[in-house]
Every structure is written in C-alpha cells, then in structure tokens.
Amino acid sequence: MKKILKMTLLIIVSIIGVILIVGVLFINLSPQFGAKSTGTNAGRLKSSPNYKDGRFHNVEETVVMKSMSYSTIPSYFTNEGKSPDWSIPVVKITSQYFDDHSDSLTRLTWFGHSAVLLEMDGKKIFLDPMLGSVPSPHPWLGASRFNDTLPMPIEQLPHLDAVLISHDHYDHLDYGSIVALKDKVDKFYVPLGIAAHLKLWGVDEEKITEFDWWQEADLDGIKLVSTPARHFSGRGLFDRFSTLWCSWVVQGKQNSIFFGGDSGYDDSFKLIGEKYGPFDFTMLECGQYNEQWPEIHMMPEETVQANIDLGGKVMMPIHWGAFKLSLHPWDEPVERALKKAVELKVKVATPKIGQAIVLDSEIPAPVWWKR
C-alpha cells in the first residue's frame, strides 16, 4: 500500500513539474507576452514622473483588487447570462464604405469591445484595434468573442494613418492583430513601455512614438494627447505596472474626441475636460466591472458621470458587447448606463458593431442587444 501511495505521489509531482516547465517555457518563448524596454526606452520609463520604485503609479492611490470573495470563483466558470446565447449582430462593410466617405465629416465605426476606427480630417486612426477572437495569450485561456464575424476582415482593412493604444492588456493590445496590421499602418502612438512589445512583433521602430501623460503630438493637423487613466498594465505573471496606461484626446479641425481606454473613476476626467474639453464625442468604458475591483473599472453610472466631467456632447459606451471578462450579465452595462443617462440628460450612442456614427448628424441608438 505504501509503495502504491509513493508511486501515486511521484506521478502527481511529476505531472505538476511538467506543467510548470511547460508554463515557464510558454511565457518565456511566446511572443504574445511581449518584451521589456531596454536602452534609451528603458531610461525614458525611469525618468517619468509617474514611475517610482520600479513601477508606474496612478494619479490617485489605486488598488487593483479591493477584496476577493472565494464564493464567487465558481461563477467565473459558468455562463448564466454573462454571454449571449446568439451571435450578436454585425453590420458588414466593404472597401466602398471608405471610398464614399467625405474627408470633411468625422466618422467612427465600432468593431466591438474598445476597438474603434476613427476617420477625421482625411485620416484613418484605429483605437485599440483588438480584432482577435480571444483576449488572451492563447485561445485555450479565454472565452471567445460574442460575434462570429467582424465588420470587415482584418486583411481587407484600408491603409491606416495611425494606431493608438491605451495599454497592453490582451483585450486592447492583441499580438495577432498588430502582426496583421503593422505593414498598413504609418504610425503607432503608445504609452511608455509598449514600444518593446511592438518591436518584438515586427513593427519598425521609426513608426512608434511613446507617450507619457500630458504629452502631445501632431498628426498632420490633428492633435493627439496622451492623458491619464486610472488602471494598470501587464501581460505576464510578474510585469504588472511595468508599462504605462492612458486615455487619448484627438482634436481635429472640426471635432474633438475623447477615448477613455480602461479607467476607474477619479478626478482626471474633470481635469481633462477643463484642459481639452468640451468634447463632441466620448468613448468610455462601460463593462467588465465588479465590486471587487471598483478602482480600476467604472460602474456604468460612473461612466455617465465621467462624460459629464469631460463636457461630452455624446457618449458611446465601449468595453462591452464582445467578451466575458467579469461576472455581470453581458447586456447589463448598457442598460444601467442608459438608465443613468436618461436621469442626467446625457445623449448616448449605441450603434451595432460596424454601424457608422457620423458626427454632426443623427446619432444611431438602436436597442440591438434585445432579440
């Protein structure tokens, strides 16, 4: 009997050892995890006023996980309304969609979650173009996208003047999407530390510009400003806070846009509104929240208040309608946001994925999530 127990224990230990070795090799050899900054780029990180004690910090002290209820762990492995039981609607577009667009009009096209293609002053700017099917380093490690198709295959997307990245989490910075897009993009604008990931993935270093908070750039007359967000970063087990995260201000000749990336609610929205607002259109995270991490993601009601702080004329909820990354029902974020928006008299855009939003014209607000 003792011999059998000893043999069983040896087998279990051996299996665990193999799993650990495979995991370490996967993390260290897979390009999906990105790379660390070196040389001049590493020096820029360390000289940032937002970098201290070997990591980046939020403006306000922020705890990623305020509490952890072990009773909720089983909920992560069940659906129970957290994903739709149907493939949500997608408006298909073709190359003609871009050929027929007037440069004098600002247009936005939602690709789901936080991915938005912005056309402004003759430029095409893709914000957080996560176009993959699963927000993780491997398809086995995450739940699939709610829609089984994109508005346009990534290979058919037009030439892009710029890509803006808010931070390096997998649902915002996707290895496969960057590899597929990199040769049709002129410029990549990213927070400090993310250049190392892009260079590893084959993006020409000359195409990449890294930003600290409040730094600005000019894209042929369009002002780009990297502004604070209340969040965190990291792609591996031990690199949390190693790269910066941000929101983006995009100001053109006619219109001013705000893209929030991921952010908990704080006074930064009001400060950004005072410095660069009001905004014709805001895109603000509304989804993947939970009372266990209230400082790094907003509740839907806070999303509406953030738009007011920014001076936004129209708000579009993003960071919902694509992936299951939290425990709430998949359509709860937009329902809660709309209820608060009615109370506070905020105009909300709720386009279908792929449906055009043209500023200074009628804003689409279909209730498409109800079958």
H/E element sequence: HHEEHEEEEHEHEEEEEHEHEHEE
What fold name goes in the CATH topology slot of the largest domain?
Metallo-beta-lactamase, Chain A
Report the uncertain regions.
Answer: 17-26
Which structural class is indicated by helix and strand composition?
alpha/beta
Straight-line distance between termini: 60 Å
Q: Assign the CATH superfamily of the largest domain.
A: Ribonuclease Z/Hydroxyacylglutathione hydrolase-like
Largest sheet entry: 7 strands, mixed
Number of strands: 16
Helix coverage percent:
10-25%
Name the CATH class of the largest domain: Alpha Beta
| Number of spatially distinct domains | 2
CATH architecture of the largest domain: 4-Layer Sandwich
Average pLDDT level: 92
Strand order of the largest sheet: 8-7-6-5-4-3-16
- The helix tally amounts to 8
Shape, principal axes of CA atoms: globular
- What fraction strand? 15-25%
Rg value? 21 Å
Provide structural commentary.
- The protein has 371 residues and is α/β, with parallel strands linked by helices.
- The chain has two domains: 2-32; 36-358, Metallo-beta-lactamase, Chain A, CATH 3.60.15.10.
- 24% of the residues lie in helices and 18% in strands.
- The protein has eight helices and 16 strands.
- It has helices spanning 2-29, 39-47, 95-99, 175-181, 195-200, 268-276, 300-310, 332-344; strands at residues 51-52, 55-56, 107-110, 116-120, 123-127, 160-164, 185-191, 208-211, 216-219, 222-227, 247-251, 256-259, 281-285, 314-318, 347-348, 356-358.
- The strands form three sheets. The protein has a seven-stranded mixed beta sheet with strand order 8-7-6-5-4-3-16, with no helix packed on it. It has a seven-stranded mixed beta sheet with strand order 9-10-11-12-13-14-15, covered by helices on one side.
- Helix 6 packs parallel to helix 7 (300-310) and helix 7 crosses helix 8.
- It is globular and about 80 Å long.
- 43% of the residues are buried.
- Residues 17-26 have low confidence and may be disordered.
